[in-house]
Amino acid sequence: MTNPKLINEYELLHQLREGSSLAFNELYNCYKKRLAANLLKLLRDEELAKDALQDLFIKVWNNRTSINADLSFKAYLFRMAENLVVDYYRKASRNKDLQQKMLQVEFDNVYNNVDDHLFSGEKVVLVQQIINKLPEQQRKAYTLHKLEGLSHKEISELMELSTDTINKYIYLAHKFVKEQIVASPHFTVILLSSAIIAEA
User: Fold this and answer.
1) Where residue 123 sits, what CATH number does that domain have?
2) Of the ranges 121-130, 138-147, 157-166, which is most confident?
3) Which of 8, 112, 129, 134 sits CB 3.0–4.6 Å from 138 for a disulfide?
4) CB neighbours (10 Å) of residue 28?
Protein backbone atom coordinates (compact mmCIF):
# COMPACT_ATOMS: atom_id res chain seq x y z
CA MET A 1 0.00 0.00 0.00
CA THR A 2 1.35 3.43 -0.97
CA ASN A 3 2.22 5.78 1.87
CA PRO A 4 -0.09 8.88 1.67
CA LYS A 5 2.66 10.96 3.26
CA LEU A 6 5.06 10.11 0.43
CA ILE A 7 2.41 10.96 -2.17
CA ASN A 8 1.85 14.31 -0.49
CA GLU A 9 5.60 14.98 -0.35
CA TYR A 10 5.91 14.03 -4.02
CA GLU A 11 3.28 16.63 -4.85
CA LEU A 12 4.93 19.22 -2.61
CA LEU A 13 8.26 18.70 -4.33
CA HIS A 14 6.68 19.26 -7.73
CA GLN A 15 5.05 22.44 -6.40
CA LEU A 16 8.39 23.51 -4.95
CA ARG A 17 10.06 23.02 -8.32
CA GLU A 18 7.47 25.38 -9.76
CA GLY A 19 8.30 28.02 -7.15
CA SER A 20 5.59 27.49 -4.53
CA SER A 21 6.57 29.17 -1.25
CA LEU A 22 3.72 27.34 0.50
CA ALA A 23 5.18 23.98 -0.50
CA PHE A 24 8.59 25.17 0.62
CA ASN A 25 7.26 26.20 4.04
CA GLU A 26 5.47 22.89 4.53
CA LEU A 27 8.60 20.91 3.69
CA TYR A 28 10.66 23.15 5.96
CA ASN A 29 8.28 22.61 8.88
CA CYS A 30 8.33 18.87 8.28
CA TYR A 31 12.11 18.49 8.47
CA LYS A 32 13.46 21.47 10.43
CA LYS A 33 13.40 19.87 13.91
CA ARG A 34 15.27 16.71 12.90
CA LEU A 35 17.81 18.66 10.88
CA ALA A 36 18.30 21.26 13.61
CA ALA A 37 18.88 18.54 16.21
CA ASN A 38 21.50 16.80 14.10
CA LEU A 39 23.25 20.04 13.15
CA LEU A 40 23.39 21.02 16.83
CA LYS A 41 24.80 17.60 17.69
CA LEU A 42 27.73 18.14 15.34
CA LEU A 43 28.30 21.88 15.55
CA ARG A 44 27.66 22.09 19.32
CA ASP A 45 26.49 25.65 19.12
CA GLU A 46 22.90 26.86 18.71
CA GLU A 47 23.88 29.92 16.70
CA LEU A 48 26.01 27.91 14.27
CA ALA A 49 23.32 25.24 13.97
CA LYS A 50 20.67 27.88 13.31
CA ASP A 51 22.83 29.52 10.64
CA ALA A 52 23.55 26.15 9.05
CA LEU A 53 19.86 25.26 8.95
CA GLN A 54 19.08 28.59 7.31
CA ASP A 55 21.88 28.11 4.78
CA LEU A 56 20.61 24.62 4.03
CA PHE A 57 17.09 25.73 3.15
CA ILE A 58 18.35 28.71 1.19
CA LYS A 59 20.24 26.17 -0.91
CA VAL A 60 17.08 24.07 -1.21
CA TRP A 61 15.16 27.07 -2.52
CA ASN A 62 17.92 28.20 -4.86
CA ASN A 63 18.30 24.68 -6.26
CA ARG A 64 14.60 23.81 -6.27
CA THR A 65 14.38 23.30 -10.04
CA SER A 66 17.01 20.55 -9.90
CA ILE A 67 15.28 18.54 -7.14
CA ASN A 68 14.22 15.07 -8.30
CA ALA A 69 10.84 14.28 -6.76
CA ASP A 70 11.34 10.58 -7.52
CA LEU A 71 14.30 10.37 -5.13
CA SER A 72 14.29 10.52 -1.34
CA PHE A 73 14.00 14.16 -0.28
CA LYS A 74 15.04 13.22 3.28
CA ALA A 75 18.29 11.71 2.02
CA TYR A 76 18.83 14.80 -0.13
CA LEU A 77 18.40 17.11 2.88
CA PHE A 78 20.65 15.14 5.22
CA ARG A 79 23.34 14.78 2.59
CA MET A 80 23.23 18.54 2.08
CA ALA A 81 23.38 19.07 5.85
CA GLU A 82 26.41 16.81 6.08
CA ASN A 83 28.16 18.83 3.37
CA LEU A 84 27.39 22.05 5.24
CA VAL A 85 28.97 20.67 8.41
CA VAL A 86 32.06 19.69 6.42
CA ASP A 87 32.22 23.25 5.06
CA TYR A 88 31.92 24.76 8.55
CA TYR A 89 34.83 22.72 9.86
CA ARG A 90 36.92 23.46 6.79
CA LYS A 91 36.30 27.16 7.39
CA ALA A 92 37.29 26.67 11.03
CA SER A 93 40.65 25.25 9.96
CA ARG A 94 41.35 28.49 8.03
CA ASN A 95 39.46 31.07 10.09
CA LYS A 96 41.04 31.73 13.50
CA ASP A 97 37.95 33.47 14.89
CA LEU A 98 35.63 30.63 13.90
CA GLN A 99 38.18 28.09 15.13
CA GLN A 100 38.32 29.80 18.52
CA LYS A 101 34.52 29.88 18.68
CA MET A 102 34.34 26.17 18.04
CA LEU A 103 36.95 25.53 20.70
CA GLN A 104 34.92 27.52 23.20
CA VAL A 105 31.40 26.22 22.52
CA GLU A 106 31.37 22.91 24.37
CA PHE A 107 34.30 21.61 22.37
CA ASP A 108 35.04 19.17 25.16
CA ASN A 109 31.73 17.47 24.36
CA VAL A 110 32.61 17.14 20.69
CA TYR A 111 36.11 15.92 21.45
CA ASN A 112 34.92 13.39 24.01
CA ASN A 113 32.47 11.96 21.49
CA VAL A 114 35.32 11.16 19.10
CA ASP A 115 37.92 10.41 21.76
CA ASP A 116 37.49 6.64 21.58
CA HIS A 117 37.80 6.73 17.79
CA LEU A 118 41.01 8.75 17.66
CA PHE A 119 43.22 5.85 18.60
CA SER A 120 41.97 3.40 15.99
CA GLY A 121 42.55 2.76 12.31
CA GLU A 122 44.19 5.40 10.14
CA LYS A 123 43.38 8.16 12.62
CA VAL A 124 45.99 6.91 15.07
CA VAL A 125 48.71 8.07 12.66
CA LEU A 126 47.48 11.67 12.81
CA VAL A 127 47.09 11.58 16.59
CA GLN A 128 50.52 10.01 17.10
CA GLN A 129 52.10 12.76 15.01
CA ILE A 130 50.47 15.33 17.27
CA ILE A 131 51.48 13.50 20.45
CA ASN A 132 55.09 13.40 19.24
CA LYS A 133 55.14 17.21 19.30
CA LEU A 134 54.52 17.27 23.06
CA PRO A 135 57.30 17.87 25.60
CA GLU A 136 58.76 14.55 26.77
CA GLN A 137 57.11 14.38 30.20
CA GLN A 138 53.70 15.48 28.88
CA ARG A 139 53.96 12.97 26.05
CA LYS A 140 54.80 10.14 28.43
CA ALA A 141 51.98 10.97 30.88
CA TYR A 142 49.43 11.46 28.09
CA THR A 143 50.44 8.21 26.35
CA LEU A 144 50.24 6.22 29.56
CA HIS A 145 46.81 7.65 30.28
CA LYS A 146 45.23 7.57 26.80
CA LEU A 147 46.89 4.59 25.16
CA GLU A 148 47.61 2.35 28.12
CA GLY A 149 44.64 3.33 30.27
CA LEU A 150 46.56 4.09 33.44
CA SER A 151 45.01 6.29 36.11
CA HIS A 152 46.60 9.58 37.16
CA LYS A 153 47.67 7.96 40.43
CA GLU A 154 49.30 5.00 38.67
CA ILE A 155 51.16 7.36 36.32
CA SER A 156 52.25 9.44 39.29
CA GLU A 157 53.82 6.38 40.93
CA LEU A 158 55.37 5.13 37.69
CA MET A 159 56.93 8.49 36.78
CA GLU A 160 57.76 9.31 40.41
CA LEU A 161 56.04 12.67 40.19
CA SER A 162 53.24 14.21 42.26
CA THR A 163 49.64 13.63 41.22
CA ASP A 164 49.22 17.40 40.78
CA THR A 165 52.11 17.43 38.30
CA ILE A 166 50.64 14.50 36.38
CA ASN A 167 47.24 16.22 36.34
CA LYS A 168 48.87 19.32 34.88
CA TYR A 169 50.83 17.36 32.26
CA ILE A 170 47.76 15.46 31.07
CA TYR A 171 45.61 18.60 31.05
CA LEU A 172 48.16 20.54 28.97
CA ALA A 173 48.70 17.61 26.61
CA HIS A 174 44.94 17.07 26.22
CA LYS A 175 44.44 20.77 25.43
CA PHE A 176 47.28 20.77 22.89
CA VAL A 177 46.00 17.65 21.13
CA LYS A 178 42.48 19.10 20.90
CA GLU A 179 43.72 22.36 19.41
CA GLN A 180 45.93 20.56 16.91
CA ILE A 181 43.11 18.25 15.84
CA VAL A 182 40.59 21.03 15.24
CA ALA A 183 43.22 22.91 13.21
CA SER A 184 43.95 19.83 11.13
CA PRO A 185 42.41 19.48 7.66
CA HIS A 186 41.57 15.90 8.72
CA PHE A 187 39.42 17.05 11.64
CA THR A 188 36.17 16.88 9.68
CA VAL A 189 36.85 13.28 8.69
CA ILE A 190 37.58 12.36 12.32
CA LEU A 191 34.46 14.08 13.60
CA LEU A 192 32.08 12.77 10.98
CA SER A 193 33.39 9.24 11.22
CA SER A 194 32.18 9.01 14.80
CA ALA A 195 29.21 11.37 14.87
CA ILE A 196 27.80 11.32 11.37
CA ILE A 197 24.43 12.97 10.84
CA ALA A 198 21.76 10.30 11.23
CA GLU A 199 19.24 10.01 8.44
CA ALA A 200 16.72 8.21 10.63
Assistant:
1) 1.10.10.10
2) 157-166
3) 134
4) 16
Residues whose CB falls within 8 Å of the CB of residue 165, separated by 6 or more in sequence, listed in order: 156
Long-range contacts from 142-148, C-beta under 8 angstroms, 24+ separation: 142/169, 142/170, 142/173, 142/174, 142/177, 145/170, 146/119, 147/119
At 196 the pLDDT is 38
User: How many domains in the chain?
Assistant: 2
Together in a domain, 70 and 45 = yes
Q: Provide the phi-psi class of 79: left if phi over 0, else alpha when psi is between -120 and 50, else beta.
A: alpha
pLDDT greater than 70 at residue 191: no
Residue 98 near residue 192, CB atoms below 8 Å: no
Note whether 151 and 69 are same-domain residues: no
- Residue span of the structural domain in which 167 resides: 107-195
Q: What amino acid is encoded at 25 in this protein?
A: N
